[in-house]
Structure formats: structure tokens, C-alpha cells
Amino acid sequence: MAEEKRLTILGKFVVLLFVVGCLVAAARLFGIPIPLPQLGLPQLGRGTATQPGPAATGPKRRTGVLAEVRRRGALAVAFEEEAPPMYFVGPGQEPAGFEYQLARRLGAELGVAGVRFVSGDYVKLPGMILAGEADVIIAGYVPDPEVEGVEWSDSYLDFGLCLIVPQGSAVTDITHLAGRTIAVYDDPAAVRWVAENIPGATVRTYSGENGWFEAVESRTADALIYDYPFAAEEIKEHPRTKIVKFNLNQAHYAIGVPAANDELLEAINAALRRIKATPFYEDLVRRYLGYRSEEVTRPVGPGRRSYTVQSGDTLTSIAAVRLGAMDRWEEIWQLNRERIPNPHLIYPGYVLIMP
């Protein structure tokens, strides 16, 4: 009897499922909505694992950041920790660096009282500003369209790759390096540049904290191709190497902001224009990115006009006196950009090629 009862219950359950199935089929046929949860069946929709919606496919858009920053009275900056000369902890455990000082000045230009620094791994910084952990990225980013949800400011520092060789090397140009071994930091852009510009080169990539300068010193590599801002700092620990050519390409660092924050982007660009026109910015470049080269103190050769830099000279003052117009400084810069790393980095005794 017990077994007969179990079969009766099972039979009723089968009949119930059959009835429910018929109801659902009829409802779909005649367009009648059925509240599925009330029937004990799972309901699928946007944002579920089975059928992902917009919220599951990308980060939530963050807007109104400038107003939020001003209401808060502080700018939160995402940065990469211990990346000299851009950001590092100096003597006395005080923060220092080009980007550190720039960020503090940027906050003042935006009209806020404070700047808060939020550190993170380089590749994770975009996610931090999208999540609201920081407002902007200032961490040596070259604008990258593949970084989703981030838009980029105008340049806060123009730079290029530079050519580094052992002291005493006869190499002075990339044309001397065809078929030779080149060291680079593990950066796809640098690897690509070598492949496109030095025929037959063997590329050795390095990452971590060291190895690329050591490869040049040990003659494991004939030369190093490296971003100038970091080369300017790291070469101090490698006096057996020298930089013989600057600005092999043209690149710039920019500030990252959450996309769709036009007011913030416009305010940052206006602030950068003001900052870059001040002696503060020139001092920043000289303090953290300076490099003196003996190569630029030598005569430029017969048949070329030249000028020897005096104390207090700038490219604009030289252009005003020697060329009759301050705005012709760019002509001098273009003739000397492979010989000096930045327009602000000229020193007494440098021999400049003149138009």
C-alpha cells in the first residue's frame, strides 16, 4: 500500500507539471504574461550570469567628478609608488618627485585646499578612478585608447626615447647599431620602435628593478633605448654609461580622468597651460629631469651657425636677442632636440645649432 501511495503522489506531480506546461505554452501563444516566480520557476533577466546586461559588461560611468572634488575640498590622485624621478620618498621620508609636485600645484590651480595621494599597481590605476577610489591618474601614462572608461588631458611632459651607450663607445647614432644587440625595458612600444628603426637588431628585454643599464655596462648589449625621464634618474647610478642622443621619437605623459567628465578635463587642461608657462614648471624640469652632456659643449662643425649658452639664458631669450623674436625659440629647439632632452634643459657652455 505504501508503494501504491508513492505512485499516486508522483502521478499527481507529473499531472501538475503537465498542466503548468500547458498554461505557459498557452500564455506564450496568446501573448498573456505569466508571473513566473509565483509558479516557483526561476526568472532570467539583465545582469544575471546567464544573460549579462550592461551593468555586467563594464564599469559604471562616473560623472560630476569636478563638482565632487570641489565639494570635498581635495583632489585624490592615483599614482605609482616609488617611481623616481616622478614620485618617490626622499630624505626624511618626505614625498618628492616631478609628478608629486605637479599634482600639488594642479590641486591649487583647481581651487582645492588639499591633494590626497592613493597608491596602486600601475595597471590597476584606471580601475581605481572608475571605482571612485581616486579622481585622476598622474603616473607616467602615455594616452592609450585601449584603456576603457578613461580620457586623457593635454601633455604635462613631452619626452622621447634616448640612446644610451657605454662610456668610450664610438656609437653616436642609431645608424651605427644595425645588426647589433639592443637592451630595452620590457615595454612593447620600445620593442616596436627598435624593430622599426634599427635593421637586424637583436632585442634583449628586461623588467623588475634593474638589468637594462647593467647590460650596457657589461657589454651584453651594445646600447640601451629607454624613456628619457627615467633614464635621467637611473643613469646617476651608472656612471660608466652616457646618453648620446635624445628624442628619438615624440611622446608625452597625460593625466587620466573618468570618461564623460568634460568640465574636469577642461579645467585640468587650462591648469596645465598656466602651470607650464610659469618658472615653477621650468624649475621642476631642471630639478628632477636634468642631465648634463659633454657632447653638447663641443663645436658643431664648420659651416653651421652656433651660439654658446651663457648663465641665465633660455631658448626664448636667445631667440629674442639672436633671431629678433621670442617665439622663434621652437626653431632653435627643433635643430637641437636630438642633442638636448627638453627645451628647459640648457646649461652654460652648451653650444647650440642656430637657424
In words, what does this structure look like?
The structure is a single chain. The protein has 355 residues and is of the alpha/beta class. The chain folds into 4 domains: 2-43; 65-159 and 252-289, 3-Layer(aba) Sandwich (D-Maltodextrin-Binding Protein, domain 2); 161-249, D-Maltodextrin-Binding Protein, domain 2, CATH 3.40.190; 295-353, Roll (Membrane-bound Lytic Murein Transglycosylase D, Chain A), CATH 3.10.350.10. It has 12 helices and 14 strands. It has helices at residues 2-30, 54-57, 65-72, 98-109, 125-130, 188-197, 212-217, 228-234, 262-276, 279-289, 315-323, 329-336, and strands at 74-79, 88-89, 95-96, 114-119, 136-141, 150-159, 161-166, 181-185, 202-206, 223-227, 241-245, 251-258, 306-308, 351-353. A 5-stranded mixed sheet has the order 4-1-5-12-6. A 5-stranded mixed sheet has the order 9-8-10-7-11. A two-stranded antiparallel ribbon has the order 2-3. Helix 6 (188-197) links the parallel strand 8 (181-185) and strand 9. It is globular.
Unreliable segments (pLDDT under 50, ≥5 consecutive)? Answer: 1-20, 22-57
Total helical segments: 12
Portion of residues in beta strands equals 15-25%
What helical percentage do the residues reach? 25-40%
Q: Which CATH C-level class of the largest domain is it?
A: Alpha Beta
